[in-house]
Every structure is written in structure tokens, then in C-alpha cells.
Amino acid sequence: MKFFTFLILLCCSFSAFTQDYIAPITAKRATGTLAQGADTMVLERVLGCSKFAIPHRSWSAVYSPDGKYVVVGGYNYVGCFDQQTGERIWGKFFDLEAKYTSTNPVRALAIHQETNRLLVGTDAGNVWLLDFPTGKIQKKLATKIGWVMAVAISPNGRFGAATDIKGLYRMWDLKTGKQMRLPIIQNERGEAVCFSSDNKYLAIGFNNSLHLIDWDNQTTTKYDVPSTVQSMAFINNDREILISGWTGYVQRIHLRTKKVLWSQSVPDWLIQLQVLPNQTSALAISPFYVWHLDWEKDKMTNLYIPARTAMDLHPDGQTILTVGNFANRAEQFDWTTKAPINNSSFYTEPPMRLAFSPDGKFLATGGYFTADKVMIWKTDNWQITGELEGNKMHGFNRFGFTKDGRYFHTNMKQNNIRIPNPNPSTYFEVPSFEPVKGTPMTRNQKYYNHQSVNLESTETVHLKNRLPVKTAAFFGSLDDTMNRHLFGGWTIEEAYFAGVTNENILYIYNSKTGEKVAGTPLPDFGVIACAIHPEAKVVAVTAWDGLVYIYRW
After folding, report:
1. CA-CA distances (angstroms) from residue 466 to 298, 475, 497?
2. What per-residue string of b and e applies to 217-236 under the rule 16 or more CB within 10 Å gives b?
3. What b/e readout covers 57-72, taking b as 16+ CB neighbours within 10 angstroms?
4. Prediction pTM value
5. Rounded CA separation 388/378 (Å)
6. What is the pLDDT of residues 301-333, one digit of tens each?
7. What tens digit of pLDDT does each residue of 367-377 get?
8. What are 150-207's pLDDT values in tens digits?
9. Max CA separation in the chain (angstroms)
């Protein structure tokens, strides 16, 4: 009996471990009340996987020292996730005014697990001390300084430090929250901060200089460097320091003699240094990719693992965490094999383009900021039937089906480097979605214009006569002072259309009378596009978490 019980528990645990986490982001703002007489809509399906997802673009990410958790910072938001499943443990908003604004990225994070402390630095100029397991705020250490570019916690967990874009740096006793007395340094653009392993020194990276601070003796030692220091790490038992930054340089400096022991460079800047367990090499990121820096072999290798704004190394020394490229979640890779590990199989950015085929058999979803990929779903079973790969650099321009339903057409704002030039295919045959080669067909094809547009108001009747239907994707604010709506296209014969109101409610409107026929409050404030099925009573909605929600009315 005990063995049988154990077997059941083991199966349940394995099922929970392997199942994709698809719970939607439920950070709510006021949604208003559903209009009287409007039928309630039902959430039928969630397309995609929300592992490590946050409500807006990610800027920073770190592992907990034991490697069990991932903390991701986005616009005004920090989320803590289970490293194995991607399930969110807690989420916290920061620096929000009376109305939602997405203007303050969380650029800096640091965790000390033995003391359960988490430091958070934001572009609003605030530094927060949180209880790591729960996400509850314990203290506000700094208020309205410059953009907080870096934070760090000393190895013993006693002190915290931060530096901002104006060159200010500060240090606190984290137990009391008291600011420590430190030497004044006249400099600008502080972008890196790091404690020595023996807790005696604090290194600060500024514009064209590195300063080593001995706070017991209130002294500072200056080191001249090629340009702004964006990342650093103490190595060789604190006798040396590894730095990197603008102009793509990396240097290994002996702290006592100030001698540069090793120097290399790449075409772009290098940030987020992570020293590997062998202590003879490190990882760093430049725009778009991860680099391996080996000073023993005097070699630098581009790993072509995607990244942009942040990276962290798992305690196993093999797994790395990366964010960027306008992603809304973090991704994990084995840096030695470049293989993804337990990542979402869906978008890492919001699919801001939606298009149903004229017969309603297919739904196409695609990114906007970066041409990550187009996914085509069969609407009878919501299974993926095709994928069109982009170049992860440029957004989609045209996006939709031709009026006869024979072709799907999409192209880049700039040339797609993954499709051979000089004549990249932009038409794809339905239902195979194979590229159509040969002469461009733009002049001979009419487009099915049921795409998202921006309406000033949906409270008037006969809207088709007053407001044109456009094919441009909508990207804007749901702030009620803007008096704007998301418009999701018309059904066949233009009998109904879908829209998201200022109160964040999805409605189906009668196109003749403007009557609200059906509706539902949406669970996520970051809705960015919607599209209505031309024949069936189905609406697709996308949000900043990178998922697609299918509602039926």
C-alpha cells in the first residue's frame, strides 16, 4: 500500500513537473461593470505557454543563489518564478502612479538567500529592499535618485550598494536601512557595482574609471579604463578584477599594481560578466548575443545565444538565464551546447498581429517589435499548423490573408535575412504555408482587411460609415484619459465587430445599432490586440504576457 501511494505521488509530481505553466498574468486594474443585457463570454482556450512571463518587457533577471528560483524585472514589475516549471511564485508592482504607466524599467536586482534579502533598483530612481520569499517590501532605501543601473549585496548579507546613471553611489546597512558614510567621488554614469568576497571592498564602475573603496578607512583607489564600466567581477581571491563595458572592451586588472594582465575587445559593448567555476574564463553579453571570454587561452567566442539586456549564471555553472530582444520573459540555455532548457515554446514577445483567414479556418499570430515568428493555428482544434520564422530584428509590416483566402502575406520592415535575397518570399500558400517563389503578387491580390485598428469611440452607431477600417496593427494605451478602444475587425457581412473598452472589457457590438451583444472583463491590463472570427462566435485577444486568449460568445 505504501509503495502504491508513493507511485501515485511520483506520477503526480512528474506530471506537474512536465506540464506547461499557462496560467494568465492576473495583475488587475479596475475593469468596470459588464453592460446590462450583454451575454457573458467564455474563455475557451489559452494559446501558448507563460513560463517566466511578466506583464511587460523584461530588463533584468537573476537566479537565487541556490538556483531554485528566477527573479525577472520588467517595466514597473518584479516576478519570482520556480526555476524548473516557470510557475510564478509572486509578483510585485513598483513606482506606479495613479494611472498605469510603463516607463520605469527594473534594471537592477540582487539576492542574498541566507538573509532572505532582495534589492530592486528602478528607473524611477528608487532602491527597494524586499523579503525574497514573499516579495513584501521591507524598506525604501533610496528615493528619486537617477536611473538605478546596478545593485549588489555583500557576501555576508550585511550591506547593500547601488549606483545610478548620474554617477551617484550609495551603500546601506540592510539590517537598519541606514546609509553608510563613504568617500565622495566626482564622476558620472555609474553602471556597475560589486563587493569583494571578503566583504572589505566595494568596486564602482563609472565613465572612464573604476574606483575601489575601502569603507573602513574611507579611502578610494582610482583605475583609468577605456570607457564606461558596465560590468565587473572580483577574481583570483580578490587580487584582480575583471571589467567590461562600452566600446566592447574587457580587461583583467591587478588591483595592487594596476597592471592590465589581459585585454580584448569585440565590435559592441560587453556587459553582465559572469565568472565560470574554472575561474579562468567568463561569460558576457553584447547586443543580441552571449560571448565566452577565456583569458587563459586568449580567446573570445560568440556563442550566438540570444540576449540583450541581462544574463545570469546558474550555480551549476552550465545553465544561463537571458532576457532581452524586447522579450516578455526569461529564457534558459546550456551555454556549452547552446540548447534551450525548459523554455516556453511560444512567443517571448507579445504577438501584436492577429489575422483570421476569410473562411475562419486559420488564425495567424505574429510579433511586432521583433520579427520572432508567425504562428498559424487551426481554429477547429487550436493546434499549430505552420510557423514562419523571422530574423528577430525587425517587425512585421503587412500581415494578413488575401481576400480569396489562397495566400497569407507578411513582410518585414526591413529585409528578412533568413530568407535568401534579393527576392525574399512574402506570400505563403494556404493551407501548406509554403513560400511562394517568383514574381511578387502585390498588384493582383486584394487583402482581407479584418485587422486591429484604433477607434476614437465605439459608443456611436453605424461606425463603418464614420471610421475607416485600416490594416495597421494597434499599439497604444488603455489609459481611460485617452478615450481609445481596441477594434478587432468585422464578422462576415459586417454584422458584428469586437472591441476592448477603456474599462478593459471585451465587447461584441451590433454593427447596425452599436448595441453591446456580449462581453467579458479581461484578466490582464496589458491587452494589445484582438480579432473576431469572420463566421463563428469566437474572438482572439493578445496581451503583454505573450499569450493568445480565445473567447466564445
Report:
1. 67, 21, 14
2. eeebeebebbebbbbbbbbe
3. bbbbbbbbeeeebbbb
4. 0.82
5. 15
6. 999 998 888 999 999 999 999 997 678 889 999
7. 766 556 788 99
8. 999 999 999 999 999 999 999 999 999 999 999 988 888 999 999 999 999 999 999 9
9. 81
Where does 130-208 have alpha helices with state H? none
Residues 133/137/142/143 CA torsion (nearest 10 deg) = 140
Q: In what order do the strands lie in the sheet with 353-356?
A: 353-356, 362-366, 373-378, 383-389
Distances (CA, A) of 356 to 363, 490, 534: 4, 11, 7
Distance CA(553)–CA(544), nearest Å, equals 23
Q: Which residues share a beta bridge with 532?
A: 539
Q: Residue ranges of the domains in the chain?
A: 24-48+347-552
> How much is the CA Rg of the chain, to the nearest whole Å?
26
Q: Return the CATH number of the domain spanning residue range 24-48+347-552.
A: 2.130.10
Q: Among candidates 178, 170, 68, 77, which has minimal Cα distance to 122?
A: 77
> What are the helix (H) ranges across 471-545?
none
Q: Are 392 and 371 in contact (CB under 8 A)?
A: yes
Residue with cell 534579393: 422
| Among 40, 37, 25, 23, residue whose Cα is nearest residue 521 | 40
